[in-house]
Amino acid sequence: MSMIGCWNVWGLNSLRKQKAVQEWARKDNLEILGIIEPRLGSNKFSDISTRMGFQGWLSADNGIEPNKCRILVTWNPAKLMVQILDHAPQWMLCETTLLATNKKLLITFVHGLNTPAERIQLWEHLVGRCSVNTLVPWLAIGDFNAILSGEDRAGGSQRWPQQMEDFPKKLDWALANSALLQAWPAAHANFLPRLVSDHSPMTINLAQESKARNKPFRFLNLWTDRDGFLDMVIGVWNQPVHGNPLYQFTTKVQLMRSTLRRYHNQTSSHISSRVADAKRKWIKGQMELDARPRDPQLQAQERILAENYNRLCKEEEGFFKQRSRIQWLELGDRNTSFFHKSLLHRRSRNKIHSLSTLDGTVLHDQDLIHQHALNYYQALLGSGSSNRSRAEEVDISGMFHNQITEDEQKSMGLL
């Protein structure tokens, strides 16, 4: 687990702000942090770093002149190896290597200038990096001095921007690409309370995926296009089950679920690996056919391999579309990469990374989060046994006027 921090502190010259940064770095176990608007250079920072608890840490800034830097980056060389690839007044680009795992990560610490015209150079830099950093984990974090949409501000006039009064804005952002979410599926950002600045400290937790849990059953739409699938469903559903109608229904649903689980494991699990394997077999079949182009058996085999590969490609695309829940894009032209990235982003948004208890304690362990949520709702709604005991005290005999007799119950198979 690696922790990255960034904070616009509006100057590190006061002891109060130095103490706030020190406590934040120690509490969140930061290994690298970007300090926006430090109002001192890395040379001056080295003089106070020991007092702030950063003994042995290295630092760099984007200032041309001493004490005129806008971004200062400091890191723990025992945990990370950092190389400054590029810097300008509005950004610092760092190539970071995690020594424990040897994983590489690009981090762009950002401090946007005040006017839209001045920020054009920043956007051009970030857009240029987007086309280069598609396969490399990349994080852009800092004070962008810009909102993403109108929802990111409160107050002021929506109709006359030039006459707006001052209003709160969300200017601090942490943006990551899909490669980062693939490398660290449980990565998430925490925006902490503002203390000595009107900007929030940001902490990025590069956590690995928690231990695997039993996956819920999901019906895959791609099954319905397969030959023989409907016949299999009818065969399972028509199996004789004895008991009352409700028992018959629930039993058949359980049988269907277990049958479809086995069917999935045998025919559609690890769909991307199946596509890659089918592609290798098709390429091999093409090479054999090229060696003996007049062999009718190889011709037929190559056509079968091609059809199988194309069918699996379509199923893979449909699988990721269903999982990503992107409904507006039609299948075709191998949109699998887009759907896969959408799935990664949806998983990241939906995951509960931490939970605050009533006494202010923050839980990060998934088992503790699960147990606390269970305890909370049991206290709120009552446990199963307590609900039953309260229900038994209520006389409901007078609520139902039309009751069936024992003979009628026997005829319906209820007794």
From TrEMBL:
<feature type="domain" description="Endonuclease/exonuclease/phosphatase">
    <location>
        <begin position="7"/>
        <end position="199"/>
    </location>
</feature>
<dbReference type="InterPro" id="IPR036691">
    <property type="entry name" value="Endo/exonu/phosph_ase_sf"/>
</dbReference>
<dbReference type="InterPro" id="IPR005135">
    <property type="entry name" value="Endo/exonuclease/phosphatase"/>
</dbReference>
<dbReference type="Pfam" id="PF03372">
    <property type="entry name" value="Exo_endo_phos"/>
</dbReference>
<protein>
    <recommendedName>
        <fullName>Endonuclease/exonuclease/phosphatase domain-containing protein</fullName>
    </recommendedName>
</protein>
<dbReference type="GO" id="GO:0003824">
    <property type="term" value="F:catalytic activity"/>
</dbReference>
